[in-house]
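Chapter summary example.
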Amino acid sequence: MRRRLLQSLVPMVVVLAIIAAVPLANYIATGQSRTLFLSRSNDADWFATMAESPLQSGDIATLRELAVRYHELYATPVFVVDVDRRVIATSRSGVDVKEPDLKVALDSTLAGRLPAEPAALWPWRSGEMVVARPVVNNGRVLGAAVLRVPTEKARDQVERGLLLLLGGLLISIGAVVVGIVRPVTRWVLRPLNDLDNATHQVTRGALDTRVSTDGRAPELRRLGDSFNSMALSLHQARQREREFVADASHQLRTPLTSARIHIEGLSRLSPTARFALSDIDRLGRIVQRLSRLAGSDRPGDIESSNEAPLDLAQAVKERLVGWKAVYAADDLELVIGEMVPGGVAPELEVDDILDVLLDNASKYGAPPVEVSVVRDGTEVVLSVRDHGLGLGSRDLKKVGERFWRSAHHREMPGTGLGLAIVRSEAARVGGRVVARPPVGGGLVIEVRVPLIDDYED
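The structure predicted for these 457 residues follows.
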């Protein structure tokens, strides 16, 4: 926006400067021409006075000598003609009185009128200036004294003046742009910059950000009010989301605690109950993570632990034992790909992550579902791929957002929290979640977590 505004204002400043400079340039050229014309007009008047007697007596030797000396001194040719336009005396030979500029000057002078001032001396033009004065005796025109004035030096002075004017013009334009246009541009765009900064703050999670609308133009005031209303709606929606997750996790704690007490009693009598007790513990950890998810917009740092690194490949293989049976019962194909050992933070809840990914792949994707663990530089990558319809480029950017669901899957059961929990769990140990379309179609969800350097296979 600032660039566009500058692109509009700077040409306007340049055009105004050019409009102001044109009369100044014309003044410089015209002034130099007038100065030269007036100085040589005095000389032409003197020659006209000196030629009055020779034109009457016919003794032109002295007049010719004066013309030659003047030519040598000022490098300006001089000649005198009678009323019939015959050259009587000249400082150089070869004068052609029929030349257009000489003819016009002589027509006016021999008619008893002073010729008009010559045109402005522009550097790109050439030629001599003609200065003519009538030789008059008792009101009768006897002839004319004519000077062919060189204009090279005068044009050089005009050129230097125009260059100085151009330099001053450029400096003025720069000063106006820096001193006026840019501050005005900043002042005009300040409300939009404030709105842009507020938008970035909201993007970073500061939903209580608001913009001031006092003293703004009506259009900007309406825009600011709309932004504040939007930010308030987002803030309220986030509050409701947090309250929902917090209430749900709180409501789940009591029945889970009660169920665990009862199952602990049964676990002494039935080995099967011990597996149920393990699932109850997993549910308890899920509730705790939901509470953390509701309490913070940014994932926390990795919790300090003295436990040994966890072999991600081994943990995945152990969890896949149960999922093979689940997939087989639903006639779905589960393919176990490459399993490269790699140590990760022991706090990573591999079972929860894999459960979400495999559950999503079975519900929203299509078989076969491929699971692999590989190393990629300083990361260990858990990858789950299905061969379903996949997601569009816009949807891929939203994977992992809370309560978000693809338009193709909104009619299917689910809460839209699964991948959000996976992303939060990965971020808790410094990892990330990447969704991408693989070659051949489908969808790949990668959970990338840091590799612990001191881990030994």
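To summarize the output: The two ends are 56 Å apart (CA to CA).
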